[in-house]
Amino acid sequence: MKKYSWILLFSLSMAWGQTDPQAAALLEKVAQKIEGYQTVSFDFSYALENIEEQIRQESSGKVWLEGNKYRLEFLGLIQLFDTEKLYTIVPENEEITISEPSEEEEGFNPSKLLYFYQEGYGYQMDIVQNVMGRKIQFIRLNPTEEDTDIDYLLLGIDVNSLDIYRLIEIGSNGTRTTLTLLEQSENQSFPPSTFVFNEADYPGYYID
Questions:
Q1: Cβ distance 137 to 159 under 8 Å?
Q2: Could you tell me if 29 and 21 are in contact, meaning their C-beta atoms sit under 8 angstroms apart?
Q3: Residues 6+ apart with CB under 8 A from 110
Q4: Which domains does the chain have, with CATH numbers?
Q5: How many CB atoms are closer than 10 A to CB 109?
Q6: Mean predicted confidence (pLDDT) in 135-162
Q7: How many CA atoms lie within 13 A of 124 on its CB side?
Q8: φ, ψ for residue 68 (rounded to 5)?
């Protein structure tokens, strides 16, 4: 899905003194597998927790990806991106927003979850967990930028399937968010309408 400059990334991370070669090798294997995907879909769970503020929120969603196209169903919203326009559909309010985002303004592009770690992080091997018979190796990702509200990330990888299993973000304000990928499927055909916005499907909706 995306070509990566691993030599450059590895060299920069070594310069920062934050790279574990074993972690780099595992991430490279994951990236090579992702490059072979024509399509991918997955269900996911999402949890946000801040013990000090006594906040705990949980939700779930589903994503379909094909190249740069995506469909996201999350928090009662539907987002469609057809590589040119982003459609945000809010059934509860019967509203639709259509925009032409730049690469920086795409918001939550689910495809970034599969390769975000390529830039801006040094990485080290962390704990190993057994999750329902799956060996999950966590890699600690340390932001290389000073101006960030993230202390660090933990990326959990199934060492046998080389699938991303879980992403945990530890914020500088004590907030912990956990995204877990469930029921992933690759290289399956999607209906043509998956990434297509059809105004006729939403009669009476306000469109901005």
A1: yes
A2: no
A3: 63, 65, 70, 72
A4: 6-190 (2.50.20.10)
A5: 17
A6: 89
A7: 8
A8: -90, 0
